[in-house]
Amino acid sequence: MIGDDVTIYQGVTLGRISQDVAAYPMIEDGAVIYTGATLLGGIRIGRNAVIAAHSVVLADVPDHACVAGAPARIVGADKSKAKAG
User: What is the average per-residue pLDDT within 15-34?
Assistant: First the structure.
């Protein structure tokens, strides 16, 4: 599922790692996914989250967080809104 007002730049991969249909990433409203990022499995990308270019995301991303790297790690967040979980 891809929410409203999501921005996905070119070369992004949304993939599953099992045959389970629910194993695709779920992207919440307002997320931004930059060029070349890879999102794998039944993970949740939180509301207004930012995925940096060429990141490999294998775990849930909290609301309002920014992740980068391979594997992706939280590198920034709107501390007034972000909650790990």
Answer: 88
